[in-house]
Structure to design on (944 residues):
């Protein structure tokens, strides 16, 4: 054990060399990337909207709100978001309570249904509902509602229609959040209330609900923001019924020739203000809620509540939900894919089915291009995001670096930016900066990296927290440098979390529409854009066939992600 | 071997108390000789683990100097900071920190595989050294087992093998036995001691368990609030605690406050509220000085009946009795004070019985008041 030579005092040149170690270079690059991705589009959005010829101006807003009033649009947006959130929250919470706390049957059915928003992209869900409930061709209207009501029909192209369709898509998200909350609640808290002599409904009102409140606030925030930034439903249903919201308006003014960037910026800023208010409001509520949050994670389960006579209506509700949210949309898509020209199902059309549309899609060049582009973008963004965020999560969770919370917050920032707003921001950046990626896949990649950075951070930091600090320290004391430690100890241990996040990003990126619709250019279509274009062109059978295949592929991906997610305890919808 | 001088490490506390800094290690100096097992002992939060982590290089001290052999690892005045991975010390963590994604063999081979290329041994030598290290801890038959499939005791030994394989000049052990159950801990204690003596390992051992510290170490340093309270052999620390804290932390003690009444060579007469005590001590105390007499329960004898009062011979009444298997504890009240005694299980006196309390001289240590 010959001791090596005495370490000499650090000379100046040595200090410089230490500054440029592999560790510092990688860390600096990651910090720079996160900062650039999070801040630059927002900065350009502000600049382009408020500054004209070097002067502060509100001119863009005046132009933007001259055609349709700010009040009307804000009202529509908020009514749509709050309405669909209220619908989703009541439905999702009720279902979650029934599943977790009562003896209702068909529980696995509900969990299968909760995967639907991941499996059926919003655009397919919305189109399926046009087939189901449009006043002219809607199956439900023709075969159920009109015979029952004597000629009247549901109108999906109206604010209530939009609210229900969006609400159905959001309900599973609420369901999953509330299931987690009800499950993690310590049953002894409720049992002690029962032992104190309170009847069941008092226990529910005075103990269960207050304990679930933090989760409820979180769920409300998420679905309201989702409602505000939703694009598919307002664009496909709202425009038909003349119901303008911010997102559909942004898309509309950018589609004009020439596109009015100023107006788009003004709408985007308005929407951003709304979502920011939502998040601010939530953080205040959450702060107050935390003081009485005593939910602990005990391993035992409370005895399920016996529903008695209410068991049958509850069962009915679950079955009805499953049929309406899962079976009907999927069935109508499958049906549509078997027709040559879409018309509502009758005996004649049902006896004349073919798989021609599948053949058409498979042999169409544009479909192949779209699949290729979607796969490239999905794999690329998922891989880059997870690798960069692994380092970012390490910085935030493991180091004592000053200002590391800034990195944490920056990486979550895009969560508050609606997809269309982000699209506008990124558009401004690359129209202005001498980086010529507009019109190529690269600009879409930038958008996807930004949108999915928060998810990457969530997955990476959750699994980083699960790795004991000592596992890293023992590698250091064993003589491994930073890079060796990261590559040989940290990364392998992070792998399950990183892979789960990677698959999740792959899934959501394939369905991404709201940023893509701003940024794509002809020749760069991805799957969701192709479906959008097919819908515009009225190619419904081909659209349905493509959709069915897409759903099939997503089922495989979601199943893998769910298995992995369950293993490391990370789930995100 | 290891030399630590004037080590200082502060932490800033939670954001609520901004700018307030806690002295985790406060001017600690110590020296560990070749082949010695040196223990840092103290309650949680006393700074023992922080001291160890400073030596390992996992924490950067604010000031001081750390060197092993003739290699300076840290010096605030000479601006030397050798990173943890270049110090070449072996460390065993409290949680063992076994890498779950590697098997037993790979865990142990890791320290050799990450050496800089020019110092990295050849594959064949790596294999030999890993096998030797595993053989020492009797895990050689489990080399291909996944590390997570090992029992607690085996993981413990694996962590030891991983630290040994580098043949480090100094081993750092951070409460390595605290995660084992009581029986296994006792076995491992002897095992670890045997290995340390046989391989001539120099080690710094951190524990909060006084029994472990007394049983294993060549020398013990008792820490309190970031400072070294007393350094000595286990016997010295146990029999001649230098402060009330040390006497209280190691073993159990009865503390009797009093003042020096007379001195006769090495023997002091101490007056307490309950009576006189005759206490031998090598330390210097002036007549009239306030002192605390610490008396170990196992050197206090009780027998039924009262034979009058003399120095070290008091009268009291049994208040409570507890049968602990190997020994019996009694709580005896003398005046307003309760004294705890420990005797072998044959002595068992029911409360309330008048007893004579007899202090043996080896029961005592004399500590300055406020110490």
């Amino acid at each position: 054990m010959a001791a090596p030579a005495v370490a000499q005092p650090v000379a100046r040149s040595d200090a410089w060399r230490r500054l440029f170690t592999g560790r510092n270079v990688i860390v600096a690059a990651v910090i720079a990337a996160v900062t650039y991705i999070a801040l630059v589009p927002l900065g350009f959005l502000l600049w382009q909207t408020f500054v004209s010829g070097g002067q502060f101006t509100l001119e863009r807003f005046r132009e933007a709100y001259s055609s349709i009033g700010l009040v009307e649009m804000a009202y529509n947006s908020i009514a749509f978001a709050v309405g669909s959130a209220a619908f989703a929250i009541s439905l999702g919470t009720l279902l979650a309570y029934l599943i977790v706390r009562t003896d209702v049957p068909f529980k696995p059915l509900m969990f299968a249904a909760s995967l639907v928003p991941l499996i059926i992209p919003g655009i397919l869900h919305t189109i399926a509902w046009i087939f189901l409930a449009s006043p002219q061709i809607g199956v439900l209207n023709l075969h159920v509602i009109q015979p029952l009501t004597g000629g009247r029909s549901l109108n999906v192209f109206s604010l209530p229609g939009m609210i229900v369709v969006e609400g159905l898509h959001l309900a599973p998200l609420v369901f999953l959040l509330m299931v987690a909350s009800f499950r993690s609640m310590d049953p002894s808290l409720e049992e002690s209330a029962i032992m104190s002599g309170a009847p069941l409904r008092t226990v529910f009102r005075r103990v269960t609900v207050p304990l679930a409140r933090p989760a409820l606030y979180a769920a409300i925030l998420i679905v309201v923001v989702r409602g505000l930034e939703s694009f598919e439903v307002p664009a496909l249903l709202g425009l038909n019924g003349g119901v303008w919201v911010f997102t559909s308006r942004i898309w509309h003014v950018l589609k004009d020739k020439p596109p009015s960037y100023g107006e788009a910026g003004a709408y985007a800023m308005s929407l951003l203000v709304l979502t920011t208010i939502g998040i601010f409001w939530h953080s205040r509520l959450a702060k107050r809620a935390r003081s009485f949050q005593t939910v602990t994670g005990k391993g035992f389960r409370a005895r399920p509540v016996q529903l008695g006579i209410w068991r049958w209506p509850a069962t009915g509700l679950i079955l009805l939900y499953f049929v309406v949210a899962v079976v009907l949309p999927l069935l109508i898509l499958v049906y549509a894919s078997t027709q040559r020209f879409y018309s509502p199902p009758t005996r004649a059309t049902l006896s004349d089915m073919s798989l021609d549309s599948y053949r058409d899609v498979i042999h169409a060049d544009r479909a192949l291009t779209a699949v290729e582009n979607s796969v490239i973008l999905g794999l690329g963004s998922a891989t880059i995001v997870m690798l960069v965020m692994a380092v970012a999560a390490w910085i935030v969770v493991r180091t004592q670096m000053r200002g590391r919370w800034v990195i944490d917050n920056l990486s979550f920032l895009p969560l508050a930016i609606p997809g269309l707003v982000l699209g506008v921001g990124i558009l401004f950046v690359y129209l202005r900066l001498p980086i010529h990626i507009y019109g190529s896949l690269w600009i879409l990649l930038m958008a996807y990296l930004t949108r999915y950075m928060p998810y990457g951070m969530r997955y990476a930091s959750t699994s980083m927290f699960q790795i004991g600090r000592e596992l890293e320290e023992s590698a250091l004391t064993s003589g491994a440098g930073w890079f060796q430690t990261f590559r040989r100890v940290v990364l392998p241990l992070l792998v399950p979390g990183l892979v789960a996040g990677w698959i999740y990003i792959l899934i959501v990126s394939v369905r991404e529409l709201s940023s893509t619709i701003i940024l794509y250019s002809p020749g760069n279509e991805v799957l969701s854009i192709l479906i959008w274009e097919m819908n515009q062109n009225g190619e419904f059978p081909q659209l349905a066939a493509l959709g069915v295949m897409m759903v099939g592929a997503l089922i495989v991906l979601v199943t893998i992600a769910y298995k992995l997610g369950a293993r490391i305890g990370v789930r995100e919808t | 071997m290891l030399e630590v001088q004037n080590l200082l490490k502060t932490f800033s506390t939670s954001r609520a108390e901004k700018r307030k800094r806690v002295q985790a290690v406060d001017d600690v100096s110590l020296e560990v000789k070749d082949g010695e097992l040196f223990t840092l002992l103290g309650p949680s939060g006393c700074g023992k683990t922080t001291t160890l982590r400073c030596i390992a290089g996992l924490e950067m001290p604010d000031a001081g100097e750390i060197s092993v052999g003739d290699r300076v690892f840290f010096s605030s005045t000479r601006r030397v900071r050798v990173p943890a991975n270049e110090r070449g010390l072996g460390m065993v963590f409290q949680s063992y920190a076994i890498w779950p994604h590697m098997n037993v063999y790979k865990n142990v081979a890791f320290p050799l595989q990450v050496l800089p290329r020019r110092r990295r041994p050849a594959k064949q030598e790596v294999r030999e050294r890993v096998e030797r290290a595993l053989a020492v801890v009797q895990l050689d038959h489990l080399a291909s087992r996944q590390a997570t499939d090992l029992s607690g005791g085996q993981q413990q030994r694996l962590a030891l093998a991983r630290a040994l394989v580098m043949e480090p000049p100094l081993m750092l052990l951070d409460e390595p036995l605290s995660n084992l159950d009581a029986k296994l801990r006792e076995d491992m204690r002897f095992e670890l001691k045997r290995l340390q003596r046989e391989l001539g390992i120099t080690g710094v051992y951190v524990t909060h368990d006084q029994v472990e510290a007394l049983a294993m170490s060549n020398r013990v340093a008792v820490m309190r609030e970031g400072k070294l309270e007393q350094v000595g052999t286990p016997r010295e620390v146990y029999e001649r605690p230098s402060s009330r804290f040390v006497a209280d932390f190691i073993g159990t003690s009865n503390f009797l406050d009093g003042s020096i009444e007379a001195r006769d060579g090495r023997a002091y007469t101490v007056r307490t509220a309950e009576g006189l005590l005759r206490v031998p001590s090598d330390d210097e105390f002036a007549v009239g000085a306030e002192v605390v007499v610490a008396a170990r329960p196992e050197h206090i004898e009780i027998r039924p009946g009262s034979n009058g009062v003399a120095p070290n011979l008091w009268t009291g009444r049994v208040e409570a009795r507890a049968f602990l298997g190997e020994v019996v504890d009694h709580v005896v009240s003398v005046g307003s004070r309760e004294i705890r005694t420990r005797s072998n299980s044959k002595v068992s006196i029911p409360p309330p019985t008048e007893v004579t309390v007899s202090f043996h001289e080896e029961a005592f240590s004399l500590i300055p008041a406020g110490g």
The beta strands of chain A are 51-52, 55-56. The domain at 68-351 of chain A is CATH 1.10.3720.10 (MetI-like fold).
